[in-house]
Amino acid sequence: MRRSLIVFVALMLVAGLAVAQHPNASKAAELQAGGYDAWTPGQNRGDGQAFSSLNNAIALPNGTSTEDTATMQYDSGAITALPTVFGQMYGNRFNLGIGGVELDTITLNSFSLYFAEDSTADTGLFFQPASAGATANQLMPRASLNIGPLVNAGSSFSMLTTINVIPQSALGTTGMFDDTFFIGAWCLNANSSVPVDNEAIGLDVGGAQQKGYTASSGASGTITLTPGAFNAVLRANVTSPNAVPVELMAFETED
Q1: In degrees, to the nearest 5, what angle opens at C-alpha 181 toward C-alphas 42 and 116?
Q2: Is residue 148 pLDDT above 50, yes or no?
Q3: What is the per-residue pLDDT for 29?
Q4: Which of 83, 118, 119, 134 has a CA positioned 20 to 30 A from the CA of residue 126?
Q5: Closest CA to 185 of 222, 138, 133, 145
Q6: Cα 62 to chain center, whole Å?
Q7: Measured between alpha carbons, how far is 201 from 184 in angstroms, rounded to an integer?
């Protein structure tokens, strides 16, 4: 009996350590449900295709711009692909101005996205804001945190009534960047077509420029990113001394 009890306690400790490896216990439980009991951020990075193109594009509603200076939008206005690498961050590198010139000092005001989930009750998603690293394929995370509640667009992005606009302050870090910044969102979806089987944002392979990337979900240090042949349907409202970005597709200015 004592031996059985010792074995049971040991197993519970191991399970507890696996959960503790991730900064959010409820998300760790989701990872465990997906078969990732010993979670290492980005452990399956590079395993197979990073995204899957959809047979039928999902058109997004017009009028999705936010207030202030300008909303940088790399996607073409449609969701044409899904993130499929479980546990990865999918996001955009924001850095170009008119004529391809890099932006000057940037103030991030807010960012916006459509969020899909197989469960209408789960409305949280992890985000990773980051600065540029020492090389073009590196980023320096400033945080990795769960933000919610979000408006759920449904498991097939069929309820696109409201885009989630998230103020920069929700990231819990400064919104000032030197000419380049990154924003990524966590993927727990593994399905290659809608409906998704867990939380995800949409991707687009039809944008004029492809600024998408994948990276592991760490909150500090230097992380290697992998450029992707897609854009995340994730837009950033910014203020910068430089001119409006060439990628801008929709914007409003304050009176």
Answers
A1: 55
A2: yes
A3: 64
A4: 134
A5: 145
A6: 22
A7: 10
Cα–Cα distances in angstroms (integers) from residue 101 to residues 68, 95, 191, 229, 243, in the given order: 21, 8, 37, 21, 9
Phi first, then psi, for residue 164 (nearest 5°) are: -80, 120
Which pLDDT tens digit goes with each residue over 156-173?
999 998 899 999 999 988
DSSP string, 3-15: HHHHHHHHHHHHH
Strand intervals (E) in the chain: 51-59, 70-72, 78-83, 89-94, 105-113, 115-116, 125-132, 138-141, 145-147, 164-167, 176-178, 181-186, 200-201, 203-204, 212-215, 223-224, 226-227, 231-232, 234-239
CA 82, CA 104: separation in Å to the nearest integer?
32
For residue 13, pLDDT beyond 60:
no
Entry pTM: 0.78
Report the residue count for the chain.
Answer: 255
CA distance 73 to 62: 13
CA atoms within 13 A on the CB side of 218: 16
127 pLDDT above the threshold of 50: yes
The per-residue pLDDT of the chain, averaged, comes to 77
